[in-house]
């Protein structure tokens, strides 16, 4: 997060710094900013409001630690920023690109990661839960209507069918709720990463942006992908005719058992 700095202007050493030069690495008041800008050697320096600069993150990443010189290029082969002495020494004969050109590609990648749509299937799953309840309730009402047409001894069979639908609804509901909880956690991680990307994209200084993006890119690579939508089981239809058939078969069995229990006419 950007820090508000109370540093004194490095040039006049009297007034509070209002601006910050990334290349010079010091604060400037409004008057000294104008003096700074008219010096040809400082043409192209990155100046920004000091309140937007995170000095703790910036550090000394603008200069080569080996040669103590300002970075001028990006070594494509080694994927590092290099200074003028690096060009003729450790990175001799390597392919170089400009800093702005290199960071522009990384910025584009960060922007793409923000704009890529996160699959949002929660609403569909929530609707499925609601419809699951509606369909289950409808089938239960049908079962109750069928039960009215049958005598008391069929209540046990009716109860079995109702329990099956209710149990299936509970199991499906639990599965959907578990999926929603998992996707919510994943979406929260995506949201946090996107928020951080949006913050660093506001960073004007290329090297500062590249350094901060390198840290958050590790988190991006470790993100767990959004889960695929689970199989959404529908409530199977309930046929009154099949219910009646089951009851009739039970009645036939009861009738057969009753007949078998009757004394034979020859024994009378």
From TrEMBL:
Residues 4-50, 59-99 form the B box-type domain. The keyword Zinc applies. GO terms for molecular function: ubiquitin protein ligase activity; zinc ion binding. InterPro entries: TRIM45/56/19-like (IPR047153), Znf_B-box (IPR000315). It comes from the Eukaryota. GO terms for biological process: protein monoubiquitination. CDD domains: Bbox1. Keywords: Metal-binding, Zinc, Zinc-finger. The keyword Zinc applies. Pfam families: zf-B_box. This is B box-type domain-containing protein. It comes from Mytilus galloprovincialis. The lineage of its organism: Eukaryota, Metazoa, Spiralia, Lophotrochozoa, Mollusca.
């Amino acid at each position: 997060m950007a820090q508000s700095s109370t540093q004194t202007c490095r040039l006049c050493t009297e007034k509070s710094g209002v601006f910050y030069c990334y290349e010079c690495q010091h604060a400037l008041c409004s008057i000294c900013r104008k003096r700074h800008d008219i010096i040809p050697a400082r043409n192209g320096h990155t100046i920004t409001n000091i309140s937007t600069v995170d000095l703790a993150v910036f550090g000394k990443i603008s200069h080569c630690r080996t040669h103590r010189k300002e970075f001028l290029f990006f070594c494509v082969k080694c994927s590092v920023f290099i200074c003028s002495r690096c060009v003729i020494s450790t990175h001799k004969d390597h392919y170089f690109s400009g800093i702005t050109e290199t960071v522009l590609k990384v910025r584009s990648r960060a922007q793409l990661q923000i704009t890529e749509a996160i699959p949002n299937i929660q609403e569909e799953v929530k609707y499925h839960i609601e419809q699951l309840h509606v369909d289950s309730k409808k089938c239960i009402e049908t079962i109750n209507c069928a039960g009215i047409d049958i005598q008391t001894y069929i209540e046990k069979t009716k109860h079995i069918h109702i329990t099956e639908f209710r149990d299936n609804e509970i199991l499906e509901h639990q599965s959907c709720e578990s999926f929603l909880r998992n996707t919510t956690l994943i979406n929260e991680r995506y949201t946090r990463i996107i928020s951080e990307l949006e913050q660093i994209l506001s960073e004007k200084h290329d090297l500062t942006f590249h350094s901060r993006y390198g840290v958050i890119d590790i988190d991006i690579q470790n993100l767990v992908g959004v889960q695929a939508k689970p199989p959404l089981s529908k409530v199977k239809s309930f046929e009154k005719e099949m219910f009646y058939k089951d009851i009739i078969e039970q009645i036939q069995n009861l009738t057969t058992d009753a007949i078998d229990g009757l004394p034979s006419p020859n024994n009378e």
